[in-house]
What does this fold into?
Amino acid sequence: MKGPQYLLLILAGLVALGWGFPTAHRWPSPRNLLPSLVALLGIVMLLLGALLTFLPHFFQE
It folds into this structure.
């Protein structure tokens, strides 16, 4: 069963989003690129984990 590893993907996405979003607003302009990219990656991981949790065979033919 692949469910728990997809739930870990959701949790990792939440952690990345929880760190990246506030940090991107606190750091000055040239340095805020890294937390912004981490927040974007967190959103992608969160959505991908939710998709694969509810539809585990989505990417299979």
